[in-house]
Amino acid sequence: MPRMRRKADLPEKICAACALPFSWRKKWERDWDNVRYCSERCRRAGAGGKPA
Length: 52
What we know:
By secondary structure, the chain is mostly loops. It has one helix at residues 40-45; strands spanning 12-14, 21-23. Strand 1 (12-14) and strand 2 (21-23) form a beta hairpin.
């Protein structure tokens, strides 16, 4: 069984909507290259600005 990674060692991206950094999540494992938003709320708001 592979060793657990520390959260500090996980890759990060900047959210296209809120411009805050977010870390890799297991549910994004297969699609990490296409993930642009940190949450569903930011995805709905799009790149137009901060979520309401």
